[in-house]
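Troubleshooting: if your tokenizer reports a length mismatch, compare your output against this known-good record of 92 residues.
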Amino acid sequence: MSRDWIFYAYMALIGAAAGAVLAAAPAAQNFAVKPYFWVLIAVALFDGALYLRGRNARAAMLTMNARVIGFVIGIVLMVAIPMLAGAPVRFF
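Known-good structure output:
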């Protein structure tokens, strides 16, 4: 399994977790850090971990396409889960 697919699965997990938190506790949207930043921070943490594990090698980093696709996967799940649950949530 390539590192991109692992990243996509990780972002699906992060998006589902953020969506579940927002569906279960809509007041979490008023936290100092907005929910879409939760997903963006997860992207940065994963990419940073790859960078450090690869001993600062450029080849160890994700491509920009993988980052964008992963971010979109996370955001879509974060928006879809509370919407399908009927939770009154503002995202932006």
